[in-house]
Design brief:
Pfam family, one: MFS_1
Largest sheet: 2 strands, antiparallel
Strand order of the largest sheet: 1-2
GO molecular function, one term: monocarboxylic acid transmembrane transporter activity
Strand content: under 5%
CATH topology: Growth Hormone, Chain: A
Keywords: Membrane, Transmembrane, Transmembrane helix
Oligomer: single chain
Distance between the termini: 25 Å
Number of domains: 1
Number of helices: 19
InterPro entries: MFS, MFS_trans_sf, Proton-linked_MCT
């Protein structure tokens, strides 16, 4: 990314680790329901379609909640750390409470609350990651996303054992405990100091450096401007005050004009400044990412239940989830190596992976043998988890850096 540089703050690697933990929790939640669905159908006395809708709420609400979370973050009313910690508490409580419910409707409500809590942690971390890693965002986002396949490997086995030992309520309590690990991870969040974003925007817009150092001690009474002219600091201070006053008066007049404008003109102004109008490539990217996430989450949720419905024992069916997660880890590592050493456009890589995964899904209904299912799950995990990196590639390729917050929420939404 020409003109952009990563932050020199060493804390940026803590942000990558935080993303790893939050992605681990998010995938642990989604994959665990794949193990629990057969038991939940019996406990809640419902059918698979209704229960599947309820169990899809964490991931669905995590994505749907990202757009309002983006607007809240943009407003500056709440810091990313406070928002992420609050979201971790909400999502964990939703999981724990769900273990003691007996009706599918309250279950869906609690899991929707869990999903919104996940969005409150997911988006702030992604935004901070982009702030710390302006140049290598796609690579570092891929490293943080390794938490997803790691969660897919480890947690389903834990939940399957907990279900046998402690029942459904105990398994959900343990899952809630795993989710609580997002709280200390979220506490580690902090905004970047001396972000290169402001410098990059100034360079693109042709802005000059401030003539007066706000942290200066006024030891120097004169300063040199670009053309060599010597200007006193008093004159510069007076000029700065006049510029600030002019801006305030202009904003007040603009606000007053907006109050008296017809609603159609105000709507037209809002539409002209809408993010999908200012960034048209973002609009073209949305259907692609929607289908990518739709397929990935459907595969995550129904991989294990599908094997059980084909007569595979539960203990063996759970292994499919771990095998798919293993494929995901390998795929992510290969993608990270490609990004680091070859520096190719990952959008092209994601197209190739999508073709392979589409082929495996096309022949999937014909597969009933467990060994063949294992091989297919590995290939699907490699492609599906690797294609998830494409959201970062589309974000960097479709929007300018100065408007990255709302597009991140829009892409996820």
């Amino acid at each position: 990314m020409g003109g952009l540089r990563d932050s020199q703050d060493g804390w940026k690697y803590v942000i990558v680790l935080t993303k790893f933990v939050v992605q681990f929790v998010e995938m642990a939640t989604a994959k665990s329901f794949g193990v629990l669905i057969p038991t939940m159908i019996y406990l809640f006395s419902t059918d698979a379609s209704s229960l599947g809708l309820a169990c899809s709420m964490p991931t669905s609400m995590m994505f749907l909640g990202s757009l309002p979370v983006a607007y809240i973050l943009k407003s500056g009313y709440i810091s990313p750390r406070v928002m992420a910690v609050t979201g971790a508490i909400i999502s964990s409580l939703g999981i724990i409470i769900s273990g003691y419910l007996t009706s599918v409707i309250p279950l869906g409500f609690c899991l929707a609350l869990t999903g919104f809590g996940l969005s409150m942690g997911y988006l702030p971390i992604k935004v901070l990651l982009n702030d710390y890693f302006q140049d290598t965002f796609i690579l570092m986002n891929s490293l943080g996303n390794l938490g997803k396949p790691a969660g897919a490997i480890v947690v389903p086995v834990i939940i399957e054992g907990a279900l046998d030992a402690y029942g459904f309520s105990g398994a959900m309590l343990i899952l809630g405990g795993i989710s609580l690990h997002a709280i200390p991870a979220s506490l580690a969040l902090r905004t970047v100091k001396g972000s290169p974003k402001a410098t990059s925007i100034q360079k693109r817009e042709g802005c000059q450096e401030p003539l007066i150092d706000p942290n200066g001690d006024n030891k120097s009474d004169v300063m040199a401007v670009d053309d060599g002219e010597i200007v006193s600091s008093d004159d510069l201070a007076s000029s700065s005050k006049e510029i600030s006053q002019y801006r305030e008066d202009h904003l007040e007049r603009e606000s007053a004009d907006n109050d008296v404008l017809p609603w159609r003109l105000r709507l037209w102004r809002w539409f002209r400044h809408c993010i999908i109008v200012e960034e048209p490539l973002l609009l073209l990217s949305l259907p692609i990412l929607f289908l990518t996430f739709f397929v990935a989450q459907s595969w995550i949720l129904f991989l294990v239940p599908r094997a059980i419905w084909h007569g595979i024992p539960t203990s063996k069916a759970v292994l499919l989830s771990s095998i798919g997660g293993g494929g995901g880890v390998l795929g992510r590592i290969l993608c990270i190596a490609i990004l680091f050493f070859l520096r190719v456009d990952f959008i092209v890589v994601s197209l190739i992976l999508s073709v392979i995964s589409s082929t495996t899904f096309l022949i999937d209904p014909l597969l009933t043998s467990f060994p063949v299912m294992c091989v297919t799950a590995f290939v699907q995990g490699l492609c599906v988890f690797s294609s998830g990196i494409s959201s970062a590639a589309f974000l960097k390729g479709s929007v300018s850096n100065k408007t990255s917050l709302l597009p991140q929420g829009s892409l996820v939404w």
